[in-house]
Amino acid sequence: MQALILAGGKGTRLRPLTVYTPKPIVPICNRPFLLYQIDTLRRAGVTDITLSLSYQPEKIEQQMGDGSNFGVKLKYAVEPQPMGTAGAYKFAEDLIREPTVVFNGDILTDLDLKAVIRQHKARKAIATIVLTPVEDPSAYGVVETEADGRVRRFLEKPKPDVSTCKNINAGTYVLEPQVLDLIPRGENHSFEYGLFPRLLEQGEPFFAHIPQRTYWMDIGTPERYLQAHHDLLANRVSRIHIKDRRGSFDSATHSEIDELSVIGDECTLKPGVKIINSVLGKGCYLEEHARIENSVIWSHTRVGTAAQVKDAIVGRGCYVGRSTLVGPGAVLGDKTSLTDYTRTCA
Ligand code: GDD
Ligand code: MG
User: Fold this and answer.
1) To test ligand 1's pocket by mutation, which of 6, 37, 168, 195 has the most ligand atoms within 8 angstroms of CB?
2) What domains appear along the chain, each with residue ranges and CATH number?
3) How far is the CA of 196 from the centre of ligand 1 (A)?
4) DSSP 8-state class, residue 150
5) I need a labelling partner for 119 at 20 to 30 A (CA). Which of 13, 86, 302, 309 fits?
6) Contact assessment for residue 129 and residue 111, using Cβ atoms and an 8 Å cutoff
7) Which three-class secondary structure state does DSSP give residue 220?
8) Position 270 confidence tier, pLDDT thresholds 50, 70, 90
């Protein structure tokens, strides 16, 4: 079994965070996001992994290298322009002529992938799609199934009232190589609008896998990116644990850090600083009485005296001036500078 991670999207809904950092390597609790997907694959014994890239590929290659630092073998398929989800899989076909696990490159999950592969083989499926229940399926691919687990209908981003089904495409597939023959070469093609409806039309053995008690989050919007952090910090993801919440950093005796927060290496926390349920990247500098709550701050950002950051995301190398308030829902791109006393909300 091999794997292909679809990591070529532009990450538009996660802007401004993705202006300088492609979505697959945005930090989640200070680790590039792709490492969580690589962990899931490695737990299932899949170590031969192709990264399918298009947007800012050199930044991803530079961080991930040949995979040897992470116990896997990484190969790269870089599209000259985005080919769509199935087009990207077709583009990488020379590297993947065997059954393949395909991941959307923006899904944080503690899925038991071994169980998916086992069920795929037992059913002699040509394609297996993992499902997850969500409250509002309109932003996803809705998947209706038969009692025996076969897929009945696949509806990408359906209009309201088209289906009452709450199970959606979780962005994880196991595909037999013969499905490659159903995808046109050199064209933009999607799994969601192209290949999956085609498998159904042809009556192919296309099955759904519905895992029990599995965490699932598409990190592709700022709200969900932040939510994924809160879930990890609160230990709500059963198979993903943060190994080390405290890097080596300088902290004044009169600063307070709650036990949930993650502090990167080389941070400086001056007296009176308070950190609650938050993540600080490497090399952040927090001046006296700065307060960070329910927020994620990327590396090398400076927060001025008595400034507050609450329910917000602050990019790399930012400056938050003294007594500034960065409030709920704010997302500051890399290198933002906020003048002293700025308010981003009432
Ligand atoms: N290489 C490559 N080339 N990757 C791509 C391309 C492309 O042209 N287009 C998208 N991707 C990657 C993205 O980087 C992302 O990791 C993944 O494919 C899915 O694309 P999104 O743009 O994030 O899609 P979505 O979130 O709107 O919908 C998809 O995911 C949902 C689950 O989160 C669909 O697969 C839905 O059916 C699904 O429910
Ligand atoms: Mg997505």
Assistant:
1) 6
2) 2-233 (3.90.550.10), 250-338 (2.160.10.10)
3) 14
4) B
5) 86
6) no
7) coil
8) very high
Model confidence at 68, pLDDT cuts 50, 70, 90, reads very high
Task: Note the pLDDT tens digit of each residue in 141-151.
Answer: 999 999 999 99
Taking residue 227's Cβ as centre, other Cβ atoms within 10 Å add up to: 14
> What is the CA(264)–ligand 1 centre distance, in A?
30
| CA distance readout (Å), 166 to 139, 157, 215, 216 | 11, 12, 16, 14
Nearest C-alpha to atom 35 of ligand 1 is from which residue? 171
- pLDDT value of residue 346: 67
Measured CA angle at 194 (ends 188, 200), to 5 deg? 160
- Nearest alpha carbon, ligand 1 atom 22: 9
- Note whether 116 and 127 are within 8 A (CB): no
How far apart are the CA of 220 and the centre of ligand 2, in A?
Answer: 5
Atom of ligand 1 nearest to the CA of 5: 16
Q: For residues 172 and 195, give the distance between their C-alpha atoms in angstroms, rounded to a whole number.
A: 14
Cβ–Cβ under 8 Å, residues 220 and 239: no
> Alpha-carbon distance 128 to 151, whole Å?
9
Averaged pLDDT, 97-103 = 93
Half-sphere exposure of 2 (CA within 13 A, CB side): 21
Q: Is pTM, for the whole model, over 0.85? A: yes
Query: What is d(CA 159, CA 36) in angstroms, rounded to the nearest whole number?
Result: 32
**pLDDT level of residue 248 (50, 70, 90 thresholds):** confident
* Structure confidence at residue 293 as a pLDDT band (50, 70, 90): very high
Maximum Cα–Cα distance for the chain, whole Å? 68
CB neighbourhood size of 269 (10 A):
26
Contact 18, 11 (CB under 8 A): yes
73 SS3 class: strand
Contact residues for 273 (Cβ-Cβ < 8 A; gap 6+): 251, 252, 255, 256, 286, 287, 288, 289, 290, 291, 292
Q: Which atom of ligand 1 has the smallest separation from the CA of 9?
A: 14
